[in-house]
Amino acid sequence: MFDYAAFQPGQAIGSHRLTLEQALIDQWCELYPADADGAVMPPGMMPVITSRAVSHTLRPSPPGGVHGGQVFRVSRLPRAGEEIVTTVGCERKEEKRGRKWVLLAIDSATADGEHLFSSRMNNVWAA
Question: What are phi and psi of 22, to 5 degrees?
Fold first, then answer.
């Protein structure tokens, strides 16, 4: 179980690779047609990419956690066919009002290392 004690501020935890398929973009655009921009990934998909990386990297995680917020910084959006490498790390952790907060640092780049987007995701960790 990936528990609160396992998080070390400043430490990279792992990474996840995903080849962005046009079919995934198309599925998104079926739900949100206004987001369609050809082969460019819609901005609304950034949380999908980061959430997949977190769920694949922090395994197994305890049930009952709460997503407390997320912000993004974007250099550019990936295109269909590009491989996205997303690294997950712990930026900070603290206990506040009886809750265990973890701020995850999530950075996505191309396979060649070109920065795509970064995120900071705040979570209440369950265990």
Answer: -60, -35
Cα–Cα distance, 4 to 32 (Å, whole number): 36
pTM: 0.93
Other Cβ atoms closer than 10 A to 29: 17
User: Domains (ranges, CATH) in the chain?
Assistant: 6-125 (3.10.129.10)
Q: Which residues pair with 19 in a beta bridge?
A: 83
- Residue 119 pairs with which residues in a beta bridge? 72, 106
Mean pLDDT estimate for the chain: 96
Give me the helices (H) in 2-127, please: 22-31, 46-57
Burial (CB count <10 Å: 0-12, 13-18, 19+), residue 84: buried
Query: Considering only CA atoms, which of 113, 102, 26 is closest in space to residue 57?
Result: 102
pLDDT in tens, 1-33: 789 999 999 999 999 999 999 999 999 999 999
